[in-house]
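Aim 2 progress update. The chain analyzed this quarter is reproduced below.
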Amino acid sequence: MPRFRMTIAYDGTEFHGWQKQDRPGEDGVRVPLRTVQGVVEQGVRSVVREPVLVQGASRTDAGVHARAQTAAFTVAEPGTGEGESQPREPVWRRLSADRLRLAINSRLPADVAVTALAPTRPDFDPIGDCLEKGYRYTLHVGLDRPIFDRRFVHHVRTALDAAAMAEAAARFVGEHDFAAFAAAGHGRLSTVRRVTACTVERAGPSRIEIEVAGAGFLHNMVRIMAGTLVEVGRGRGDAGAVERAIGSGDRRDAGPTLPPTGLCLMWMCYRGVDTG
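Predicted structure tokens:
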């Protein structure tokens, strides 16, 4: 059956994360929450007119943004309808990949868009086939509040030492047990992860960007790493604080979990294909 790979961008502010979920209603009936997966799946279904399932690569939390989430869906081969002698030509076969992308986008709300769509192999797995992914956490530093991009940055009012933060960030690189940098109840059997890059750079007079790349991350891991680096930038720790937290595995030795506002999934890397 034909399968399509998508790259999706979204403003996560008004979503309950990527993954479909629901909550109990007043009458006991489960009520679906607004999630990116649910919205995109509904948009795809309305175009291809099939009950497709959209599988995403990264289960971003509520409020987290993405420039390059990777997802995929499979459609059925054309079949013959009742009273028809020839198989019906499906909508997806009559459209080019880009026309299909535009048709899906016409069914999506303003805070999410499919930025790329292409046929892929039938067994393409957005999760299992991902080699590496990159996140960016953006800080707005200073007394003045951000206005026009306030949904995409975390405001820190006190001055930060970016050089000290960069020195501490380098200590995250490598394969370590990141138990101290995971949310309680993360549900993973192993807390060992490999971070391939972690940098801190000034992106302007009031902006600091923390870039983190790796093969996979624990729940809230990047936000806790960013919180730890902010504490170092405030002078409440040094580069050794990262190593001590990794060594102890104690969540209390790492910094706070920063809000989702400043976090964005920037890119994902697959064999032969990069997104972002």
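The longest strand covers residues 192-204. Residues 14 and 31 are 16 Å apart (CA to CA). These observations will guide the mutagenesis experiments scheduled for the next reporting period.
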